[in-house]
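Field reference: sequence -> structure
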Amino acid sequence: MVIHCLGVLDMSTKAARSEEDLRLSRCPTGVPGFDEVTEGGLVRGTLTLLAGNPGTGKTLFAARFIYTGATKWNEPGVYVSFAEPRKRFYEFMRQFDMDFESLEAKGLFSFIQIPTAISREAVATLTDNIFKTVMRIGAKRLVIDSITPLMHILGPIETRAMLHNAIYNLALLFNVTSILIADLPIGEQRIGYSVEEFIADTVIILKLDYSKPGSYRRYMNIIKMRGTSLAEVSLEYSIMPKLGLVVHTPLSLGRTYISRSERINTYIEGLDNLLGGGIIKGSSTLIIGPSGSGKTLLTLSIAAENVKHGNNVLYISFDEPVSQLAETLSLLGYNHQQLEATGLKIVYVDPYTVTPGRLRHLMKDLVMGKGFGKDLVIIDGLSALYRILDEEEFTRVSEELVLLFKNEGISLIMNMARDYFQEGGLLETIADNILVLRINPGSTQVRRELIILKSRMNIVDNRWHELALEEGRLKVI
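Structure field:
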């Protein structure tokens, strides 16, 4: 039996419930991605220490935990704040679609504001105040933000003893699940308060990483969580508009089904024949060639023709903005607005704002959330992404994307600016099909040429063919 913190249990239920049931019961936090990687959320009736540098989103995480309990599970919550006044807290949380004022009016929430310059005498009454508030509203969730002022006043030993007694009694008597927030100075990665060793069932550290080029990244380390099997990895997360803190989990991968009889046509004259009748549905295709070899012309033509033939296509560009791609479509004789109205979605993503986690979130949102690209997804300009990510990150994320779309039965086409025979290839083991483009100066005119270097489940022509633009249409000769 798994219990999702649904109010106070009567005594007969408590007596009947085994220790194993209690150990496995969960309090969902509502933080996107977090509950997924922690087998359902925090363990009910335990204490979590949430530590991090300024700006890492500790308050957002804790607020979402309280808000989810009240709105989704009808569990009242108490938020004790040393950090900011009630009005500022309410205003800030409204930006993330959390209305604590209405919860307070319904008796589902209580905010306890503690002056920053708290004295030892005030600390002595703090525990009593928390107990009374918890009992008054029947709270099942508690946050103390943060314990750092207590550490400065009482020292680690007294603070540890006070918190242990208070939280232990709340968990024992009322099954309250608690989060303690701890502040880490900039540059520090260790908590250093000794609290985590003695009283915390779960320890989570949030940190900022400035080591990668482009935008800085946020990482979450779940150091321990009793009763939970955890992968020993750093989880990237972001603070997103409206959503708040979002943990970027790996793209879900399941079993795939591919049949050679199901094809996505390119509708480029001559190309489908070279591919044995088109691209096998759900497979991945890498188009690679130097700048100017015709990669974007080719992928835009494939996108436009597929939409004209009734398919739903998502086109993601890391290189060119939407307006520039629309002009190229016009050059090829297509109307961008008409295509958008009948199944084409073009999205430009600035590569300097992308991290692996944000890319995972974007793909899930566009494809799984909004339903774009049900038949075909095209990613244009992988080389721009490669310049931002290191090779290991680039390969890992690309592999996840290939498997994600394969699981969904969605065909994927990627293009990358790279001279395959001079610089070597990338993603050869990941892509099912590899089309290499080159520029052949010739004796009288420059020719763009194409070869099918690899095509799984197909027997293909392995000779070079001209990629020609005739009367505004591409064709393979």
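Note: The CA atoms of residues 17 and 229 lie 22 Å apart.
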